[in-house]
UniProtKB/TrEMBL annotation:
<keyword id="KW-0812">Transmembrane</keyword>
<feature type="transmembrane region" description="Helical">
    <location>
        <begin position="74"/>
        <end position="92"/>
    </location>
</feature>
<dbReference type="InterPro" id="IPR036259">
    <property type="entry name" value="MFS_trans_sf"/>
</dbReference>
<feature type="transmembrane region" description="Helical">
    <location>
        <begin position="12"/>
        <end position="36"/>
    </location>
</feature>
<feature type="transmembrane region" description="Helical">
    <location>
        <begin position="343"/>
        <end position="360"/>
    </location>
</feature>
<feature type="transmembrane region" description="Helical">
    <location>
        <begin position="300"/>
        <end position="323"/>
    </location>
</feature>
<feature type="transmembrane region" description="Helical">
    <location>
        <begin position="98"/>
        <end position="122"/>
    </location>
</feature>
<dbReference type="InterPro" id="IPR011701">
    <property type="entry name" value="MFS"/>
</dbReference>
<feature type="transmembrane region" description="Helical">
    <location>
        <begin position="162"/>
        <end position="186"/>
    </location>
</feature>
<dbReference type="InterPro" id="IPR020846">
    <property type="entry name" value="MFS_dom"/>
</dbReference>
<protein>
    <submittedName>
        <fullName>MFS transporter</fullName>
    </submittedName>
</protein>
<feature type="transmembrane region" description="Helical">
    <location>
        <begin position="134"/>
        <end position="156"/>
    </location>
</feature>
<keyword id="KW-0472">Membrane</keyword>
<feature type="transmembrane region" description="Helical">
    <location>
        <begin position="252"/>
        <end position="270"/>
    </location>
</feature>
<dbReference type="Pfam" id="PF07690">
    <property type="entry name" value="MFS_1"/>
</dbReference>
<feature type="transmembrane region" description="Helical">
    <location>
        <begin position="212"/>
        <end position="232"/>
    </location>
</feature>
<feature type="transmembrane region" description="Helical">
    <location>
        <begin position="42"/>
        <end position="62"/>
    </location>
</feature>
Amino acid sequence: MSEILPARTYLYFIAQSVNLTTAVMSVTMAALVGAALAPDPAWATVPYGFQFLCVMLATYPVSWLMERIGRRRAFMLGALPLAVSGVSGFLAVQHQHFFALILSHCALGVYIAFANFNRFAATDNLTQHLKARALSLVVAGGVIAAVAGPALTGWLRDVGGYPLFSLCYAVFIGLALVSWLIALCLPKEMPVNRPQQGLQASETVRPAPRRVLVVAMSVAALGYGIMNLLMIQASLHMKGMHQDFADVRMAIQWHVVAMFAPSFFTGSIIKRLGIKVTICAGLGLFVVSTALNMGSSSYAVMTAALIALGLGWNLTYVGGGALLAQALQDSPCAMRLQGKNDLAIAVCATLGAFTPSLLLDTAGWKGTNGLCMVLCLGLLLATALRLPAKPGTSAPKLQTAPRPR
């Protein structure tokens, strides 16, 4: 049994590094540029909000498109909105045009919706024991992005002769070219199996039991939403405690490292312990993180809680994705179900991005952590009770329609 990942896995790793680099850059500069161009300060985060909205709206249509034209062509097409984002963002800053900035972040959101499928595409046609390793490696592209994103923003932010941040958007054009070239180098795909004429996909394809799919999607989506919520609220809470900005940034950086660095060996953890134990460990780390936050508000404890939160996110995100990939087993309906999975993640991530301030004002820091603890404990219990010990092997094999002659 081969233990070697195919070369295309590393292409997806590079592609995901490009994707996450653009996302990190947008986080760094969106609100600052928005505040400079917005007609009212209250509109400063509107472009970034539209970016999340477009990720959410484009995710399922992108999965539908991939099912019909294949991964390779879809990823090549997906590089186009990134180039549009670069051109419109550069022009927006150059001419001080707020609505062009909104267009730029909308286009970036569409690109991210395409690129988020890199992790699932890397698992296509791999044996079951390699799927988790491939997905884990692709998610590890976040480590490159954590370095490259802030570095590019810092180098290009203030270049003589250009308005602030204009070249940060312009670099998206170059990254779009890199993304297109990576997609061009991907191997050509086999034709997608089509359901027999007159039959619904649900009649020709029977994935793993519904409870396995629900657990996979719930773990990845709720884990992402809770991570987003607590990460953003932690920075707000630290600022409210008059913590120095450099300290807040350092705590968040440790959190980001904890999110992505383990991906280099999460696949090995899944292989040794199993997906169920890995997911439960991730949810357990979420509970530990919320308990630490409820027990103390000191900087050291909050930093430790953010690290535990990042580790928990990694195990639930990679574990949930690996569970879904193994459960679907390359069926013709896989891309649609992956689209539903990423739509759920986008919805929860958006809620996690928009609610921290509201919950901090209403429930407070400890109240928010208490709510998240209850959600995590409920999900942990459901996972322990509903997920088979070896979901990748105990699920019945898919019944797919024969290839048309």
